[in-house]
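Notebook entry, cofactor series.
This is the third protein in the set we're modelling with a bound small molecule. For this one the ligand is NAP. I'm keeping the input format identical across the series so the outputs can be compared line by line later. Sequence and SMILES below, as received.
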Amino acid sequence: MRLSELSEANLARAYAYPDGLERPYVRVNFVTSVDGAATVRGLSRGLSSKPDRRVFGLLRRLCDVILVGAQTARAENYRGARKPNQATGAPPRIAVVTASAELDPAAPLFTDTAVPPLILAASGAPPANLRRLADAGAEVVELGEHPLTPAALLAELDARGLRRVLCEGGPRLFGELVAAGAVDELCLTITPALVGAGTARMVGSALDAPRGLRLAGVLEEDGVLLLRYLREG
Ligand SMILES: NC(=O)c1ccc[n+]([C@@H]2O[C@H](COP(=O)([O-])OP(=O)(O)OC[C@H]3O[C@@H](n4cnc5c(N)ncnc54)[C@H](OP(=O)(O)O)[C@@H]3O)[C@@H](O)[C@H]2O)c1
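Returned structure with ligand:
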C-alpha cells in the first residue's frame, strides 16, 4: 500500500503499540540503503526522505521515551522531541545511554527541549561529567553496571512507566538489544540507493546466530519501502 493513501489516523493505527503493556515494548526505527548502509558520511540524514520523515515523526508521537546511544545523540546533534505524545500530551523524553557521560551541556539535547533528557549512565562515568549534565537540566541516573545491560535499561524505563519505547539506534545499542533478545519490533525504511562499503551497518555487533523476524507491514512511497517486522515467535 502507498503511504500517501493513509490518513494520519490510519497510519497511527497501523503503528499503534500493543494495548495494556505490562513491560516495556521495544520498537526500533532505522533507515538504511538497499545495500544495508546505516550512514552516509557518518550521518543517517543522507538516507532519509519525506516518507521516512513522516513515519519517523509519527513513531515519536506514539512513544513514551526515545532511547538512543550517546554516539547517535552526539553525531546527529539531538535535541528534545517537540511534538506531544498523542496519549500523554507531553513530548516523549530522550533517554541517552552512556558510559562516559561525555555529552556537551550546551547541545540542543539540553538547551532545546520541553522535557528534561534522561541520562542513563553506567557505573564509573566521571562524576564531573554527570554533574555538568545535571546542572544543564538533565535527569541523571547511574545504573550501577558497566556496561549497561538491556535488562537494566528496560527495568529503569519500566519503573518510570515508560513502556512504549522507541529506540533510534545507533548500531551499537541496537546490536546489544538484539543480542539480548530485547527487541520486539523493527521499523525499517529502505531507501532506494546503494552506498557501498565502509559505512556502519544497522546491527553493530556480531550475533551468535541469526535472529528471525516476521514481516508485519509494508508501505511504499516514491520507491522508499517502510517495513515493519516483529520478533519471530
Ligand atoms: N540509519 C539510521 O537509522 C541510524 C540510526 C541511529 C544512528 N545512526 C548512525 O549511527 C552512528 C552512531 O552509532 P554507534 O553504533 O556508533 O553508536 P550508538 O549506539 O548510538 O552509541 C554508542 C554509545 O552509546 C553508549 N553505550 C552503548 N551501549 C552501552 C552500554 N551497554 N553501556 C554503556 N554505554 C553504552 C556509549 O556511550 P559513551 O561513548 O558516551 O560512553 C557508546 O559509545 C552515527 O553515525 C549515526 O548517525 C544511524
